[in-house]
Amino acid sequence: MALLGELQRDARQSNADLAARIGLSPAPTWRRVRRLEELGIITGYRAEIDRRKIGLGVLAFVRVDAERDNADATRVLEEAIRGLPEVISCHYISGAGTFELQVLVTDLDAYSRWTMETLFRLPNVKDLHTSFSLGEIKASAALPLGHLGTSR
User: Fold this and answer.
1) What b/e string do you get for 68-106 counting C-beta neighbours within 10 Å, with b at 16 or more?
2) Residue range 21-67, pLDDT digits in tens
3) How many domains in the chain?
4) Distances, alpha carbon 108 to alpha carbons 2, 57, 73, 90, in Å
5) Residues in domain HTH asnC-type (predicted)?
6) CATH number for the domain harbouring residue 40
7) With 41 labelled, which of 31, 104, 115, 147 sits at a CA distance of 20 to 30 A?
8) What pLDDT does 151 receive?
9) What's the chain's average pLDDT?
10) Is the confidence at residue 68, as pLDDT, over 80?
């Protein structure tokens, strides 16, 4: 969908510029954007920030092992994880482990402190397995849209 692709590329562009890029007039472009927001397809607008330039030099991938046979305890853990600003992504995973987290901190000492003072103190956490990013090959918040076709 051209409209979504353009918005992912630059959500700050004016409606007139957006309309010109997708080949529509401004009024129907504006209506389509509003409709996508109402449907929950567009969930918000935010700035992309270079984490390193603001001092978040360590990206950790953390597999959290928890008891899977206790649904109530798992829900409590999910809520606790949602409240941690250092966790930028959390997925309930198959295979070994229960959750896979992406965690951003300033340095390795900060990560060590955070795991001991925060993560290990969460309810239902049995164990952690951490891998650190040694170099970023690709990081994008833009979703692949090829399956949507070329309609506006």
Assistant:
1) eeeeeebeebeebbeeeebbeebeeeeeebbbbbebbbe
2) 999 999 999 999 999 999 999 999 989 999 999 999 999 999 999 88
3) 2
4) 42, 9, 29, 20
5) 1-57
6) 1.10.10.10
7) 104
8) 57
9) 93
10) no
CB 92 within 8 A of CB 82: no
Contact present, 97 and 91 (Cβ < 8 Å): no
pLDDT band at 102; cut points 50, 70, 90: very high
Residue 40 domain-assigned (yes or no):
yes
Q: Cβ distance 74 to 66 under 8 Å? A: yes
Asked whether the beta carbons of 6 and 18 are under 8 A apart, the reply is: yes
CA dist 57 and 73 (Å) reads 32
Q: Give 16's contacts (C-beta < 8 A, 6+ positions apart).
A: 26
- List the structure tokens of 79: 């809520």
Q: Are 74 and 125 in contact (CB under 8 A)?
A: no
Q: Is the pLDDT of residue 78 over 90?
A: yes
62 within some domain: yes
The answer to whether residue 127 sits within a structural domain is yes
